[in-house]
Please model this.
Amino acid sequence: METKRIYIKDTEHVRDEELLEAAEIIRRGGLVAFPTETVYGLGGNALDEDAAKKIYAAKGRPSDNPLIAHVSCPEEVEPLVEYMPEAGKKLMEAFWPGPLTMIFPKSSRVPYGTTGGLETVAVRMPSDPVANRLIALAGVPIAAPSANTSGRPSPTTADHVWQDMNGRIDMIIDGGPVGIGVESTIVDVSGDVPTLLRPGAITMEMLRETVGRVEIDPAIQAPPSADLRPKAPGMKYRHYAPKAPVTVVRGDPAQTAAYIAQHIGEKTGVMCFDEYRDCFPGCVVECFGSENDLGTQAREVFDRLRAFDDTDVRQIWAQCPSDEGLGLAVANRIKKAAGFSVVEV
Ligand code: TXA
Ligand code: MG
Model:
């Protein structure tokens, strides 16, 4: 399959003519990768089971891992859900459009092919103008997982998407690098107490300020096991991982840098904060932002993890922020890339 690539220069003022062909592809049951404020998505018609099948095939993703339905306005949620929980309403008002996905009880209109067989559906309204306009023009909710091959780091540029999806989908819309860089926060509002299933730019602190009590799915902090099944099926798979094994070292940054420096072996990669760039002689060093700049860390983390795959490193050490604010999301992605292989110093 030939993959067409189009480029949107002024994403803030994208014109409808620029997106009509992409919208038509979605309506016809085809696949289009598009930018969102979090990561690039791989979109297809969320109400079309065959489109969902094509998405799973293009990503090489197990089909029990459900997709997020993206809408362009709050009114488009109603047909997708059985009812709107009170917490869902509040969170929608506070954080939509934006990097928040919510899990609702699904209506009969949403096919099981999209929800991986679940009775719930994940819904998100992105703020990115290209994403938002594309959904509106398509006239259907767009199912969109991150546009990476299953298991690889999520794509934050159209080039990442091209690396993984060229020849597998109909079109890639290039809207430049994304603003946030880690996927949306996922909150399950289908039960009694809202539960965080995946941390993101809408932080735990922000959620609690809006709805009070919020629980955390333990799978965010620990490896999946037989008695610890993540509620977001996607969290059980190895994820975000470069080809070489990653070990995370957590603690005070100066100490973690010292620990890593003492453990340099042959063909070693290090993903570190900018401040420690020069501490690892002979290593392939990828910096992902200053130790106190979580915004840059979120934007850079997937791109830096991908960069190791162009090298011959055999092992990778990674520094990691602590769990406050956006740090919880960045730390979660690094730990997942490491398969939860973590050293505390
Ligand atoms: O930022 C994002 O959310 C990006 C952009 C493209 O919007 N999308 C994204 O989709 O990250 P994906 O498919 O890579 O991750 C969706 C996660 C998966 O871990 C999946 O298991 C979980 O959401 N999920 C989807 N539907 C669910 C449901 N009904 N119940 C629990 N988890 C669900
Ligand atoms: Mg993903």
Remarks:
- Residues 145-146, 154 surround magnesium ion (ligand 2) (CB under 6 Å).
- Residues 246 and 338 are 4 Å apart (CA to CA).
